[in-house]
Write a structure and sequence with these properties.
Blueprint: E1 38-45, H1 60-72, E2 78-80, E3 105-107, E4 110-120, E5 123-130, H2 137-143, H3 147-158, H4 164-171, H5 179-189
Antiparallel strand pairs: 1-5, 2-3, 3-4, 4-5
Helix pairs in contact: 1-5
Length: 191
């Protein structure tokens, strides 16, 4: 799924077999497959107690909700990025999980939840994508035709993000989360 600022031509021959679509929010591409990432949309109308006109600060409550959900699943080292930009790689504008934006969630400093929003005069439509697994290989194969640059991107992006399954296994104490468990934990954590 391409970000709102990406042209469809960014997906090259490596995208054969993938349905390439563009969402109307967010910046970088996200590979979406059945059940991964866990994708949750939230509508927040103008006037809601959580509403703010500040587009960047609007992510704060949503990031905290995601963080609470992940902690309830037993994960530790969960962080929420403030309103200022976080860590980025040279690939951030191409791949969503290559950088950390306002309100986005990390585990041990690696991005695990990407956020985007689309607004109109009635409210904001928030998108949250929570990785279960992170392997940028297929996405980079679709976006970066040059094999040397693809290998460089893969090396840099490998540590930029982490899937919940891998984070739980690395931490040793948390049970391995399923998509259903993540969705239920998010719903239980909503303010």
């Amino acid at each position: 799924m391409l970000g709102s600022t990406q042209r469809s031509g960014v997906a090259g021959p490596g995208a054969d077999g993938l349905d390439v679509v563009r969402r109307r929010s967010g910046g970088g591409a996200v590979l979406v497959s059945p059940g991964d990432p866990v994708w949750i949309d939230v509508w927040l109308p103008v006037g809601d107690p959580l509403w703010t006109a500040d587009v960047t600060r609007a992510f704060t409550w949503l990031g905290r909700t995601w963080a609470s959900a992940l902690e309830s699943l037993g994960l530790t080292g969960v962080g929420v990025q403030g309103p200022e930009p976080g860590a980025c790689t040279p690939w951030s504008s191409l791949v969503c999980f290559g950088g950390i934006g306002a309100g986005e969630v990390t585990v041990d400093g690696r991005k695990v939840v990407g956020l985007a929003q689309r607004r109109d005069r009635h409210g904001a439509w928030f998108h949250g994508a929570c990785l279960l697994r992170w392997d940028p290989t297929v996405l980079l194969g679709a976006l970066v035709p040059d094999g040397n640059r693809r290998a460089e991107a893969g090396a840099e992006l490998a540590d930029a993000a982490v899937g919940l399954v891998d984070a739980a296994l690395a931490q040793g104490g948390a049970p391995v989360p399923t998509a259903d468990a993540v969705a239920a934990a998010f719903l239980d954590s909503l303010p």
